[in-house]
TrEMBL record:
This is Peroxidase. It catalyses: 2 a phenolic donor + H2O2 = 2 a phenolic radical donor + 2 H2O. Belongs to the peroxidase family. Ascorbate peroxidase subfamily. Heme b binds at H200.
């Protein structure tokens, strides 16, 4: 068998095994321009191994960075699409997304830089920062104990990163109906929104994002009535340390599991935008289902993550492959 025939056989097997994806219409379909595995196979065959090994090395040193990578991917995709705009540094003439108040707590940029440097040494100009971030988030989920899943590749890096665009990020003060509407505008169902919210099974929240629940909540309640009373006291004690004080979203902050949904059932959701998922009858059943069945959560989460990773991607001449993820070419 010649090299061409061998390549075509490998490509055909790759298409059969992983060339199908969950699409926005609720079914499955072929990814067109965003199935670049064959291109990487020929021009950067070690890309998956480099990304996974580098991510694992960093997470072994600091497991809290798993949450950081997943959050960074989400903050990238919900602003101008999955185009690595969140990685761009501000310049004298432009304040970039990463300097928005909503992004100041993002971490893990050094992991993406590390991967990018290695890939540029191996195969310069081939793998985009947007693909690196998507792969890194996927590998972080698996490292933390979550599902393993394949993602389409071929995203290009965007040429825009502006602070004002971060207004598109969901606020921690949104209620369930507002979240359903915001996610719906991007093509997600209520169930997919609840599944993606499960990423909060990893990581922590800063007091600045939930202190409004603890005093002067509304005209009739000093403390958010949907919050467990003892838990509210615990959060208040933490917030006495200042806005940057942190509390874990659930009891297993470095492990990807379904404990986040159990916390919502106990009325110990840290953010208002978390607890509201249990309070609203439209989403409560989904929360209960995921709390009862972790396998169901994992399946729905991985499908929703693949779908999120396809938001407004840049392809062809609409994007570029940055040489440095922090700088637009």
């Amino acid at each position: 068998m010649g090299k061409y025939e061998l390549f075509m056989l490998i490509l055909l097997m790759d298409i059969i095994v992983s060339g199908w994806r969950f699409d926005g219409g609720g079914g499955y379909g072929m990814v067109d321009g965003l199935r670049m595995d064959y291109y990487y196979m020929m021009n950067c065959p070690f890309v998956e191994g480099i990304v996974k090994n580098t991510v694992n090395r960093h997470l072994q040193a600091d497991p809290t960075l798993a949450a950081a990578l997943v959050r960074m991917h989400f903050h990238d995709c919900f602003v101008e699409g999955c185009d690595a705009s969140v990685l761009v540094d501000s310049t004298k003439g432009n304040t970039a997304e990463k300097d928005s108040p909503a992004n100041l707590s993002l971490r893990g940029y050094e992991i993406i830089d590390d991967v990018k440097e290695q890939l540029e040494n191996q195969c310069p100009g081939v793998v985009s920062c947007a693909d690196i971030l998507a792969m890194a988030a996927r590998d972080a989920v698996f490292f933390a104990g979550g599902p393993v899943y394949d993602i389409p590749k071929g995203r290009k890096d965007g040429r825009r990163s502006k602070i004002e665009d971060t207004i598109n990020l969901p606020s921690p003060t949104l209620n369930s109906s507002e979240l359903i509407r915001m996610f719906g505008q991007r093509g997600f169902t209520a169930q997919e929104m609840v599944a993606l919210s499960g990423a909060h099974t990893l990581g922590v929240a800063r007091c600045s994002s939930f202190k409004h629940r603890l005093s002067n909540f509304d005209s009739t309640h000093d403390v958010d009535p949907t919050l467990d009373a003892q838990f509210a006291k615990s959060l208040s004690n933490i917030c006495s340390g200042g806005d940057k004080s942190e509390h874990a979203f659930d009891s297993t902050k470095d492990t990807f599991d379904n404990d986040y949904y159990n916390a919502l059932q106990r009325k110990t959701g840290v953010l208002f935008s978390d607890q509201t998922l249990y309070n609203n009858p439209r989403t409560r059943g989904i929360v209960n289902a995921y709390a009862f069945n972790q396998a169901m959560f994992f399946l729905d989460f991985q499908q929703a993550m693949v779908k999120m990773g396809l938001l407004d991607v840049k392809e062809g001449y609409n994007g570029e492959v940055r040489a440095n993820c922090r700088i637009i070419n």
